[in-house]
């Protein structure tokens, strides 16, 4: 086996980009997310053109059944054939390939601008079908979504550095298992990206070396996934991404966007000539809709960075935000608005002044109770979005399931069904108090509809204590982002450490061993330990580890079954055994302690400008 030696700095860079656990295929093998139509059966556009020509000439795909089925699936996914593998029928899209094939059969043509031009024509036609509501394959929609994510994540100045170069695109593809690795890569500085490239180049597939660190094992699995695909994929990736880029220019506001469920949701922008919904309460859409779902719930285990993730979305989009937090006493009237008592004061005769109970003069006049409509965050956000159609507005709900969400939303749940423009598909008749409020601010409203520039985003932890379940009707109207316990902690390596049993371990190593044990015990993953469950300061404080981590495990995670993890029968005895990190109160098997002590001092700034701060993400 080749010897591979990575420095601590190189391992940290790998951690900042790669995930510790890759996406898996149906065969449970590490998988990369597709960025092209590449398939192992028909790898290049030249092979596709030749196969289509054979179908046009002979009516057959191949002699043996396995090849026939695989070829048919590959071509069908691209919209080039229909029928069956025994009786394939060429679609009109095949003419793009056949016309070029009859003109030029050279490798130079099909691996260069010629092949890219053919694929652009096919992709353009598939996009037109998708925009028209006609069926396209899930394979195409997945690749389109991944290309969409690619352009969301690569800064415009960097596009010129990667789009013209197939090998650069191939390098990005080789780290694209979940879809967010490319975004992490471009959060690094240019120098850090170069250092990451050098570090990742050292990594070997898992059968060629023996990694000693968790991140090294994960990096080797990325190499395992990459070597299952021939390097010719670079031409297909280049063709697809450059086609997407061309369509961004050609279609502009009409470029379709898919959500994570591969459902067509909205265009990149509604454009200056956006539809106006008229006097029934609608409004023209904004001219710069966000590349994110209109209803989004970020969920995950404690300390997984949910609130930080949403804050990053908001900061990156420059939205106007109306924040609220649900709790057991939250009601429809808190969220939407209600008439509430408001004191007003009537002037009194100076000769007959009012007095307080203690005899002091009361100088504000005779109190009278008036009733006024006080808008809730949903109404305030709606009013702002209607008044500013070119501005994106977010109503942010923290801990959405700590209140009875279905009751809090009430009939406004109907508004969460959005059309392709992002506006509410169905309206709700405005109540008299809502109509009166909007009339008072100069926005007459008879029917309520959420405009396309109004977004509802939320956070939740479904397995926490004291939470309400979300029913199916409510859940299906939202998109979800899961922030899991397997994501790496992005604290600097010298701060992401914990002292246990008088040894120092990487926090991710300790956390992985602990979470693996909890999974063995059947604990739901929403109760596992996220990367930011403890701040970097708390990791260096044994009392914080005892009071926050161990007590959470004792009271919340393993209530009535603490002996399945803890070695002591009471939490008092756990504390006595812990003795500032010298004891081992958990039934854990740990390896690879760090020889050197923790060197960072309390109060030291642990993050650069590109990384989440401990205060921002811990306890999210």
Automatic annotation (TrEMBL):
Supply the InterPro entries for this chain. ATPase_dyneun-rel_AAA, Methyl-DNA_Rec/Restrict_Enz, P-loop_NTPase
Bias (Polar residues): 608-620
Name by which UniProt lists this protein: AAA family ATPase
Return the Pfam families for the record. AAA_5 (PF07728)
| Region annotation Disordered: where it falls in the sequence | 599-620
Q: Name one GO molecular function term.
A: ATP hydrolysis activity
Q: Where is the ATPase dynein-related AAA domain?
A: 296-477
Q: Which organism is the protein's source?
A: Thermomonas carbonis
Taxonomically, the superkingdom here is: Bacteria
């Amino acid at each position: 086996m080749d010897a591979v030696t990575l420095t601590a700095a190189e391992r940290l860079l790998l951690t900042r980009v790669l995930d510790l656990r890759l996406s898996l295929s149906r065969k449970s093998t590490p998988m990369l997310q597709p960025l092209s139509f590449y398939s192992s059966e028909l790898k290049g556009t030249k092979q596709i053109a030749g196969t289509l020509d054979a179908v046009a000439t002979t009516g057959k795909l191949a002699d043996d059944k396995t090849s026939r089925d695989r070829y048919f699936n590959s071509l069908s996914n691209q919209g080039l054939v229909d029928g069956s593998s025994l009786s394939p029928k060429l679609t009109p899209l095949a003419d793009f390939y056949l016309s070029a094939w009859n003109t030029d059969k050279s490798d130079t043509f099909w691996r260069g601008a010629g092949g890219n031009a053919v694929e652009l024509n096919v992709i353009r036609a598939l996009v037109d079908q998708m925009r028209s509501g006609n069926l396209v394959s899930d394979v195409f929609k997945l690749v389109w979504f991944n290309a969409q994510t690619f352009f969301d994540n690569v800064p415009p100045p960097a596009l010129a550095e990667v789009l013209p170069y197939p090998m650069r695109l191939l390098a990005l593809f080789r780290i694209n298992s979940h879809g967010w690795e490319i975004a992490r890569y471009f959060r690094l500085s240019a120098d850090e990206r170069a250092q990451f490239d050098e570090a990742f180049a050292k990594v070997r597939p898992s059968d060629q070396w023996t990694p000693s660190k968790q991140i090294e094992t994960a990096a080797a699995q990325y190499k395992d996934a990459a070597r299952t695909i021939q390097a010719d994929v670079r031409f297909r990736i280049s063709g697809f991404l450059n086609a997407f880029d061309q369509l961004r220019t050609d279609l502009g506001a009409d470029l379709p966007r898919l959500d994570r469920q591969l459902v067509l949701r909205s265009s990149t922008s509604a454009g200056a000539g956006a539809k106006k919904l008229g006097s029934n309460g609608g409004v023209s859409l904004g001219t710069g809709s966000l590349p994110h779902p209109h209803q989004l719930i970020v969920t995950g285990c404690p300390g997984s960075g949910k609130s930080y993730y949403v804050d990053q979305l908001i900061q990156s989009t420059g939205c106007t935000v109306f924040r609220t937090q649900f709790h057991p006493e939250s009601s429809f009237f808190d969220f939407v608005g209600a008439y509430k008592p408001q004191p007003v004061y009537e002037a009194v005769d100076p000769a007959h002044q009012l007095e307080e109970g203690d005899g002091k003069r009361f100088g504000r006049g005779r109190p009278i109770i008036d009733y006024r409509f006080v808008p809730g965050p949903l109404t305030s956000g709606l009013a702002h979005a209607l008044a500013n159609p070119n501005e994106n507005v977010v109503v942010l709900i923290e801990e959405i399931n700590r209140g009875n969400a279905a009751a809090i939303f009430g009939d406004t749940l109907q508004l969460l069904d959005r059309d392709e423009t992002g506006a509410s598909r169905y309206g709700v008749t405005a109540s008299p108090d809502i109509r009166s409020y909007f009339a008072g601010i100069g926005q007459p409203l008879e029917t309520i509809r959420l405009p396309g520039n109004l977004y509802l985003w939320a956070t939740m932890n479904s397995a926490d204590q004291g939470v309400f379940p979300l029913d199916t009707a409510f859940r299906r109207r939202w998109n979800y982002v899961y922030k899991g316990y397997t994501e790496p902690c992005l604290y600097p390596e010298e701060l992401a450490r914990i002292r246990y049993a008088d040894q120092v371990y990487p926090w991710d190593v300790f956390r992985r061993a602990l979470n693996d044990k909890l999974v063995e015990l059947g604990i739901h993953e929403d109760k596992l330990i996220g990367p930011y469950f403890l701040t970097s300061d708390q990791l260096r404080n044994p009392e914080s580890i005892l009071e926050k981590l161990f007590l959470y495990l004792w009271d919340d995670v393993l209530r009535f079954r603490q002996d399945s993890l803890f070695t002591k029968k009471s939490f008092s005895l756990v504390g006595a055994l812990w003795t500032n990190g010298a004891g081992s109160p958990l039934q854990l098997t740990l390896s690879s302690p760090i020889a050197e002590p923790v060197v960072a001092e309390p109060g030291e700034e642990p993050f650069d400008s590109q990384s989440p701060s401990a205060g921002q993400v811990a306890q999210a």
